[in-house]
Structures are given as structure tokens and as C-alpha cells.
């Protein structure tokens, strides 16, 4: 009896084929095979929002080969990814291949291992139409918003723009944060910082001024700060009270899709799309010596924190063997998922906890290894014992003026021996304090008033934006990476190192959306829409009725907006630069053309001077001494070339540094990845040095 198994990707097909053997043929659909048409709405709004699906262009040959394979097989199994999108792909395949929707032919794999595949094959089920309808409702809703709103923006702002249910809210978050930064008024404040020495100690510790008589005092100006310092004078610093305690520090939960994207951004500098690409590869299977193609992590699209008992037991066994029984909690840890979490899958974890990163390093690409190490360490740490910190808080008096000092030392490292969660904003924590007791007099090494200014809120990074979207119930984990990619591609947002900065276009578009489509960019409305779509998934709401509720208000809003803005076109303000037009002396402005941004003279049409935007790196060309410029390839990848191109054709993918070669004083270049190094590109020099934390600073 011949059996056909259809999965989504060739890599996954290869791994599963190994476990199923010769009685099965495993083939890949390469993602979706049918979708709404690209050139038109493709939704019959008047007749129950009926979608008009068609075969995706370029997949006709693949579909024919799947039809041929299905006809030859005695049984067809649909084993696409275990989520909403995967369910929809199986449903589309069932229609194309004329499979009976009442057959138990849908199988899912939470992990691509021998056990995971065996469990999946032993529990076939019918296609879950609630999941399919939830995917259809989202797809159709996003299509309606995109296809109805985008042409409106083309007419009123600029061609090529797009709007979306999640992307427009994401852009608004970034724009609103920029407005907060611009409106922020920095305020001066002062601190009085002391460096003190305990008896028999040579290492000074920090103490900060708190106030008088136990009442906290905020110092607003220099005069008051100097007054306090003068009043203290040479008075002794006496320890009034010492409070000792033990602080318990628990590990972070295993990863969900969202927290994985956030932590990979913080710790690895990965963009969300890069994280999901590496995670997909780890899930689908990697060739490992003596093991063959093996899935290394569980399914990577999940918002559940559930962990199987088998995985917990395997982690506990590894922890006890590696660090000893003391590093295990008294009872296995259980993490509670959020109320709206979809609990079909476990948290993201290694499929084999005993398979430590060093054992598979040689089989993985750099990105795969970094991400596997992060996932493995986070999971193992999540199953480890609590860390214990000995804490000390001291109240110190100097002539009636109170100071406070605090610190900690590690009593038991617990899970921190392996891993600690990163933070968007690292907070400085004091180290261990020297030994002293109540009544001790401390020696003053330094006492100084210091000026500070309050800081505006930081711009969003990918990590903090994903966190904000999740906390506000906007979109779902699987949508964050494509949403961020879209808003950057469409020119709404630019990257400045890790920060996401809105463009003038984002400002203009968000203002228009606020004025005419408030519900689309309203977080509460969008979050409620997500809840309704989740209810479709659980069968609590009808998908057509949900779309109908939304469309009735949306259509009226769009009609009113077109009426209100009849004959109006919004002008996008030019961004002025410091670059002076060499023909007329005006400051040039940044404009957007068919091929991206360029510099233009604001004196057009009298002055028609334009030029490319060039980004200097500070480095010099090793061939001719010209300035090295940062450029973009046709695929959007950054490379570095000489300003004198094409007469000088020097280019490199390696970034020029502000460091100079100690042998010939030329610019050094930095090679990234495995074997990272600084090197001199000047012919005949040959100088190079390995990259270390010290020489990177």
C-alpha cells in the first residue's frame, strides 16, 4: 500500500522521509499553493465574503506533480505546519487533490524527530475547519483593508503606499513615540555620590544621598547640591543601620515566538525575519553525523509556555549529570501561558535536551548555531533551581544627611550558571559590599555633586516594538517579522543602528489615518478584532459574521473619508539637509523617486541640481585614498565602495573602521562571522588581528 505525505518544505520532507521509510513518499508543497489573486480584490463582499482562490503563479507544474502523486497513492496524508496557516494549506491541498474533508488525513508534528513523527502518524484527524476559517477571516480582512485603503493613500499621498490592519498600528506606535521624544522637555537634577571605604578594606563602594530625617529629597539645582556638600563638610560617615536579606531570582520561561524574537534581537542583533529563518531550519531538520537529518527544536510559532513531561525529565537528567542535584528545583517548574495563548504546541525548546550546542556546532551554520544555543540555554535554565543572592542595604549618616548603599553577592548561582535573560535597558546593580556593622565609621574617598538631565523615552527597537505589539494584543507572533519588514520596505520606518525611526512619510500617513480611519489605528479596536478572530478559531464566532461586523463600519468610514478629502492631496514635506547645492547655494532636500531617495535642490525648476545620497564611512580606499562610501546592492545588501567609482573599482562587503593599520596607517576593515578579524586591504601590507571585546570598543 503506497502512502503519500505532503509537507510544506523540501528540508522537512527529507527529514520526515528518513523516519517513515520506503513505504511512504514524502513531498513538499513549498508553502501555499492557492491564494487570493494579486491583481484584484478576489473577495465577493456581497455574497458572504466568498474568496476567489486561484493557483499561485509559478506553481502550476508543482500542483500537477502533486495531483499525479496523489492519484498513484492509496492514501494521502496532509502534514503541513501545525498552525492556522498550515491548516489552511492542507485545506487548499484537499480541494486541489479532491480529498474528502471527512477523512482522517491531517497529521501534525510538533517536532521533527523519530518520536514526534511517530506520534503524529498515530493520531490522524480531520482538517479543523475552525482553524481554516480563522485563517480565511484574517486573510480576507487584511485583503479588504489593504485593497480598499491603499488606493486611497495612492490618490491622497503617494503611489506605492500600503495600509494594513497590523502594520498601520505598528507605524503609529513608532510615530507616537517619536512625537513623545520631540515634545520631551529635559529637566535638570542633581545627585550627591560618595565613594566610601570600610575599615580593613581597600576597595571603595558607592553610596548615594537620600535625604534628611528619613525623608527623600530630590535635588533640582547645583546651588542646593553644593549647599548639602558644604554642610556635610568633614563630618564622619557613620553606619546607622545594616539590613541583610536573601533575594530569590527565578529563571525566565522557555521561549515563545515573541520572546525568542525579542531575545535574539537583544543578544544576537538578529532582525525578526533572520530569527524566524534560522528557527524554521532548526525545526525542519539539519544533517548531523551519525544521526542524519534531525529536527533540533520544536515548532517555532507558538505562544504557549507548556512543556511536555518527557522534555522536563530529559532536562532534569542533563542538569543533574552536568551540575548536580542542587541545581534542580524541588519540583519541576510549570509556566503559565497568557489567557489568550493558543496551547496547541509546546514552548520552543530543543527536541533533545541532552544534545548540547557544542555537540552539533560543526553541523550548523553560524546563525543556526547562535539561535540553537540561545534556545537550548533558555530551556535548560528554565528547568533549573532558583539563584540566591545575599543582599545588604545600609543607611549611613553624615552630619544629619542620609546616604544609602546597597549591594549583593551570589550565595547560590542556580540557573545563572548557564543563562540570564537580556533586558531592553540594562540596569546597573551594585556588587558585593565590604563587611561593616552598625556604628562603624567609614572613610570618605570622594564626595561629589553630579549634574544629570532626564532623558526622553528611547525609540523602539525590533525587540521593544514586538513586546509592545504583544502586550497590546496587536497581531500575532507569526505576523511580527513580516510586519516589520513591510513598514521598512514601504519607507515608513528606517533603521538607525538598532532603533526604528519613522520617516516624514510615516508622520503624514499616520496623521491622515488618525483623522479619517481612527479605528484602523486604534489599539483597543485592533486588539478586539484579534480577540474576535481568535474566537473564530475556537468556534465561538462565525467568520462571515465577524467580517460583516467589521466591513459595515469600515465601508462607511472609507466613503466619508473620500467625500471629506475630495480634491485634496497631502504634500509630504521635504527633509532639509546640511548639504549645500553647489550651483545656487541653497540647502538641498531629500526627495523620494522611483529608485529611492535622492538629493534635490529646493530651487526647482530654476535650479535642477540633483545628486545621489552618499553615506561616508570615515574610512579611506586602500587603492587610491578616496572616501569609502556605504552603498546598497540591488538586493538591498550593504557593501562598501570607493567614491571615485568607476575610475577606482575597489569594493568590499567588509566594513571600513575608524582604526588605522599599525604597519602602514591605512584604514582597517572588519570581517564578520567565523574568523572575525580586522585586516589591512592595502596591497603588500598583510596586517590583521583577531576581533576581541577589547579592540572592538
Low-confidence sequence ranges = none
Spatial ordering of strands, largest sheet: 8-9-15-14-11-16
Q: How would you describe the shape? A: globular
Q: What's the average pLDDT? A: 91
The helix fraction, in percent, is: 25-40%
Count of individual helical segments: 19
User: Span between N and C termini?
Assistant: 64 Å
Structural class: alpha+beta
- Major sheet description: 6 strands, antiparallel, barrel
- Give the radius of gyration: 30 Å
Q: What share of residues are in beta strands?
A: 15-25%
How many E strands?
30
Structure description:
With 697 residues, this protein is of the alpha+beta class. A hairpin with a 2-residue loop joins strand 17 and strand 18 (499-502). Helix 6 (167-183) packs across helix 14. The longest helix has 28 residues, at 129-156. It is globular. The N and C termini lie far apart (64 Å). The relative contact order is 0.10.
In short:
The protein has 697 residues and is an alpha+beta fold. It contains 19 helices and 30 strands. The termini are far apart.
Question: What's the helix and strand layout?
Answer:
Blueprint: E1 3-7, H1 10-20, E2 24-28, E3 34-35, E4 43-44, E5 50-51, E6 54-55, H2 60-72, E7 75-78, H3 84-96, H4 114-122, H5 129-156, H6 167-183, E8 188-197, E9 205-212, E10 215-216, H7 222-232, E11 237-249, H8 257-268, H9 272-284, E12 286-288, E13 292-294, H10 309-323, H11 357-360, H12 366-382, E14 387-398, E15 401-412, E16 441-453, H13 462-471, H14 477-489, E17 493-496, E18 499-502, H15 504-516, H16 518-521, H17 523-537, H18 543-564, E19 575-580, E20 587-593, E21 596-600, E22 610-611, E23 615-620, E24 627-632, E25 638-642, E26 651-652, E27 655-660, E28 667-671, E29 677-680, E30 688-690, H19 693-696
Parallel strand pairs: 1-2, 1-7
Antiparallel strand pairs: 3-6, 4-5, 8-9, 8-16, 9-10, 9-15, 11-14, 11-16, 12-13, 14-15, 17-18, 19-20, 20-21, 21-22, 23-24, 24-25, 25-26, 27-28, 28-29, 29-30
Amino acid at each position: 500500500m503506497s502512502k503519500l505525505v505532503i509537507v510544506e518544505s523540501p528540508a522537512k520532507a527529507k527529514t520526515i522521509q528518513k523516519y517513515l521509510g520506503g513505504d511512504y513518499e514524502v513531498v513538499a508543497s513549498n508553502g501555499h499553493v492557492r491564494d487570493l489573486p494579486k491583481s484584484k480584490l478576489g473577495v465577493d463582499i456581497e455574497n458572504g465574503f466568498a474568496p476567489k482562490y486561484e493557483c499561485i503563479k509559478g506553481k502550476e507544474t508543482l500542483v500537477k506533480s502533486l495531483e499525479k502523486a496523489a492519484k498513484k497513492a492509496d492514501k494521502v496524508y496532509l502534514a503541513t505546519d501545525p498552525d492556522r496557516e498550515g491548516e489552511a494549506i492542507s485545506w487548499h491541498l484537499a480541494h486541489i487533490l479532491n480529498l474528502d474533508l471527512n477523512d482522517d488525513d491531517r497529521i501534525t508534528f510538533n517536532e521533527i524527530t523519530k518520536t514526534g513523527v511517530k506520534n503524529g502518524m498515530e493520531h490522524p484527524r480531520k482538517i479543523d475547519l475552525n482553524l481554516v476559517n480563522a485563517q480565511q477571516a484574517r486573510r480576507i480582512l487584511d485583503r479588504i483593508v489593504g485593497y480598499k485603503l491603499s488606493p486611497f493613500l495612492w490618490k491622497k499621498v503617494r503611489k506605492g503606499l500600503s495600509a494594513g490592519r497590523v502594520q498601520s498600528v505598528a507605524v503609529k506606535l513608532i510615530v507616537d513615540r517619536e512625537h513623545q521624544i520631540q515634545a520631551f522637555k529635559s529637566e535638570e537634577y542633581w545627585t550627591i555620590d560618595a565613594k566610601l571605604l570600610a575599615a580593613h578594606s581597600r576597595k571603595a563602594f558607592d553610596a548615594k544621598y537620600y535625604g534628611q530625617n528619613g525623608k527623600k529629597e530630590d535635588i533640582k539645582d547645583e546651588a542646593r547640591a553644593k549647599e548639602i556638600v558644604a554642610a556635610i563638610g568633614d563630618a564622619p560617615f557613620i553606619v546607622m543601620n545594616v539590613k541583610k536579606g536573601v533575594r530569590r531570582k527565578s529563571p525566565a520561561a522557555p521561549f515563545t515566538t515573541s520572546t525568542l524574537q525579542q531575545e535574539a534581537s537583544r543578544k544576537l542583533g538578529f532582525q525578526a525575519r533572520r530569527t524566524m529563518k534560522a528557527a524554521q531550519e532548526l525545526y525542519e531538520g539539519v544533517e548531523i553525523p551519525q544521526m542524519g537529518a534531525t529536527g533540533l527544536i520544536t515548532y517555532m510559532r507558538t505562544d504557549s509556555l507548556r512543556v511536555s513531561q518527557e522534555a522536563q525529565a530529559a532536562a532534569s537528567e542533563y542538569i543533574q549529570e552536568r551540575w548536580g542535584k542542587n541545581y534542580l528545583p524541588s519540583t519541576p517548574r510549570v509556566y503559565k501561558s497568557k489567557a489568550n495563548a493558543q496551547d496547541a504546541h509546546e514552548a520552543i525548546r530543543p527536541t533533545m535536551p541532552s544534545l548540547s550546542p557544542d555537540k552539533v556546532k560543526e553541523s550548523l551554520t553560524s546563525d543556526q548555531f547562535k539561535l540553537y544555543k540561545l534556545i537550548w540555554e533558555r530551556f535548560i535554565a528554565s528547568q533549573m533551581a532558583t539563584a540566591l543572592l545575599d543582599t545588604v542595604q545600609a543607611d549611613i549618616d553624615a552630619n544629619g544627611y542620609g546616604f544609602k548603599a546597597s549591594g549583593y553577592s551570589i550565595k547560590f548561582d542556580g540557573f545563572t550558571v548557564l543563562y540570564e535573560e537580556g533586558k531592553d535597558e540594562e540596569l546597573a546593580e551594585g556588587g558585593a559590599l565590604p563587611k561593616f556593622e552598625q556604628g562603624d565609621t567609614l572613610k570618605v574617598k570622594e564626595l561629589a555633586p553630579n549634574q544629570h538631565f532626564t532623558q526622553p523615552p528611547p525609540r523602539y527597537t525590533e525587540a521593544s516594538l514586538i513586546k509592545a505589539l504583544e502586550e497590546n494584543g496587536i497581531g500575532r507572533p507569526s505576523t511580527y517579522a513580516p510586519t516589520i519588514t513591510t513598514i521598512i520596505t514601504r519607507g515608513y520606518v528606517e533603521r538607525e543602528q538598532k532603533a526604528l525611526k519613522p520617516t516624514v512619510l510615516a508622520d503624514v500617513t499616520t496623521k491622515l489615518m488618525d483623522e479619517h480611519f481612527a479605528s484602523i489605528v486604534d489599539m483597543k479596536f485592533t486588539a478586539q478584532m484579534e480577540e474576535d478572530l481568535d474566537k473564530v478559531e475556537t468556534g465561538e464566532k462565525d467568520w462571515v459574521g465577524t467580517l460583516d461586523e467589521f466591513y459595515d463600519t469600515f465601508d462607511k468610514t472609507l466613503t466619508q473619508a473620500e467625500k471629506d478629502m475630495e480634491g485634496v492631496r497631502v504634500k509630504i514635506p521635504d527633509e532639509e539637509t546640511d548639504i549645500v547645492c553647489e550651483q545656487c547655494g541653497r540647502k538641498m532636500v531629500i526627495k523620494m523617486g522611483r529608485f529611492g531617495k535622492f538629493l534635490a535642490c529646493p530651487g526647482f525648476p530654476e535650479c535642477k541640481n540633483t545628486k545621489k545620497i552618499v553615506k561616508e564611512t570615515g574610512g579611506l580606499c586602500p587603492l587610491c585614498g578616496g572616501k569609502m562610501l556605504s552603498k546598497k546592492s540591488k538586493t538591498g545588501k550593504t557593501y562598501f565602495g570607493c567614491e571615485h567609482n568607476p575610475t577606482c573599482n575597489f569594493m568590499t562587503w567588509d566594513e571600513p573602521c575608524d582604526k588605522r593599520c599599525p604597519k602602514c596607517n591605512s584604514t582597517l576593515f572588519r570581517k564578520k562571522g567565523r574568523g572575525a578579524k580586522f585586516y589591512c586591504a592595502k596591497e603588500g601590507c598583510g596586517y590583521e588581528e583577531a576581533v576581541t571585546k577589547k579592540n572592538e570598543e
